[in-house]
Amino acid sequence: MITVRCEIHGGDTEWDYEWETNSVIKAPNQNEHRIRSASSYNSGKYRCKGRMKSSQSKTTEWSDSVTLTVSDNKPRPVLTVSPSWLSPGASVTLNCEVEHPSAGWSFYWYKAVPDLSEKSSSYELLPDGSGTAQDSYIIHGQTHTAGYVCRAGRGDPEYHTDHSQPKFVWSADVHSAASLTVSPDRVQHFTSDSVSLTCEGNFTEWRVRKSSEDGRLSVCRRMTGSTCNIDYILMSHTAVYWCESGSGEFSSAVNITVQNDGNGPILVSPVHPVTEGASVSLSCSLRTQKILSNVFFYHNDKLIQNDTRGELKISAVSKSDEGFYKCQYSGRESAQSWMSVKVTVSGADSSSSPVWLMVGLVCGVSLIIILLLLLYRCRQSKCKSLFFSCCIREFIYYIHFNYSHIYMYSDLMTLNISGTIYT
């Protein structure tokens, strides 16, 4: 409910009220105008004045105008996501912005879950995401591509806005549950090329979705099974692509860039991240000539290779090789593409290191005990000559006859030095 009130200092009982408005619905001649169910018909400028009851000719000045704007459509907040691309260990921050922000809004945060039957998404409330006072929400530990939505509410009873448009945070890391492959396997393509994007994983239903450079979301309209076919690629196909399964899984995301210069080169670079330590080759290609020589290669706008070779080969990729790459041929430059490097920690090495630490500790303690026993036997020995060899014999005799239940290093001792005792 909206209330527009006219107040006159000095008391209300002596005055009648007069309203002036350009709205379709006129206000009554009372000090309050209550709008119980607002619509666009109530929009307009409102002002009032008082007329004394005892002398109708005596009036106040007109008040200042108040503008009331009522929209028949619910407002829709705008959601922003930062960062757009995930990096290991990074948090994701969501911000929900309401048009004409004011105090009193509560915010609701949702995860977008693919719903292939409705060709849209359903929304699941995030943990502690109901009615927060803050217009931001932080997500920790996000590792895969995901979509998010927000909406706002205020008042009693609470009035809710529409849901925002979904916004996505993308992961380039390929995981086993769902993945997207591109053929030809490169980021950049010439206009009119044919490109196919195939979803892989243990699911029967798929759709390929894209987010254009202007943020518009759309779904591939030519799906054959789990493959999206683009027979004639255009500049409008430059976008981020990913797969969504009927079970709610998201694949890794890939960038597709379409060359807008028909005579210019493209950079041939991998679509997915390159694993640290692996080798990779980047090359430059023309529509009419696939293999080129005398190509300049740039990393983050810095020239890194300028010779007769037509390929940039990195034999063992490291994290420092990550970044933007582009090539130049005959004075024409390709677009630049990001090459991501995936750093992996060997699960076998990391899991076995505590075992080897324990083995080393036990062996070290055992060796110290053996040396102490050897020293003790030597000091108790009655040998006067060849002291060291005598000590060894005494010690072996002691171990053999008194500690035959000890099996540590038994094979080594029996095979290599038992002959010394009995020869």
Outline:
This protein has helices at 347-380, 387-402, 410-422, and strands spanning 2-5, 15-21, 32-35, 44-52, 66-68, 78-82, 92-97, 106-115, 120-125, 136-139, 146-154, 159-160, 167-169, 178-183, 188-190, 195-201, 206-212, 217-219, 223-224, 227-230, 239-245, 254-259, 266-268, 274-275, 280-285, 296-299, 302-306, 311-314, 323-329, 332-333, 337-339, 341-342.
- Based on the structure given, which CATH architecture of the largest domain is correct? Sandwich
As for the CATH topology of the largest domain, it is Immunoglobulin-like
**What overall form do the CA principal axes indicate?**
extended
Number of helices: 3
CATH superfamily of the largest domain: Immunoglobulins
Helix fraction?
A: 10-25%
Task: Give the tally of structural domains.
Answer: 5
What's the mean pLDDT score? 82
Low-confidence stretches: 347-353, 402-423
Let me know the largest β-sheet: 5 strands, antiparallel
CATH class of the largest domain, named: Mainly Beta
Total number of strands: 32
Question: Terminal Cα separation, in Å?
Answer: 110 Å
Strand content: 35-45%
Radius of gyration: 38 Å
Judged by helices, strands and strand pairing, the structural class is: alpha+beta
Organism: Oreochromis niloticus
Protein name: Ig-like domain-containing protein
Transmembrane segments: 355-376
InterPro entries: Ig-like_dom, Ig-like_dom_sf, Ig-like_fold, Ig_Fc_receptor, Ig_sub, Ig_sub2
